[in-house]
């Protein structure tokens, strides 16, 4: 069994309130969960208006499948158009 997690930090464009930030983050979380079946949650920067930090984890029997899934998740977040990723930290168990 392979577990790979990552922490993705990003800037949110055109976010002028916490309400707007939460709607962007919830949209990303819902789309990502539905498309890739990963565990995902906001983990830091709760009260920072234009920054988001998501924790994402994948479990599989194959390391390559986990890595490919996380790469696809990152691509999906980047393709969102409302955010710009500025750091990614990966950890494998």
Automatic annotation (TrEMBL):
PANTHER family attached here? DUF503 DOMAIN-CONTAINING PROTEIN, HYPOTHETICAL CYTOSOLIC PROTEIN
Instruction: List the source organism.
Output: Carnobacterium viridans
Protein name, entry field: DUF503 domain-containing protein
The record ties this protein, via InterPro entries, to: DUF503, TT1725-like_sf
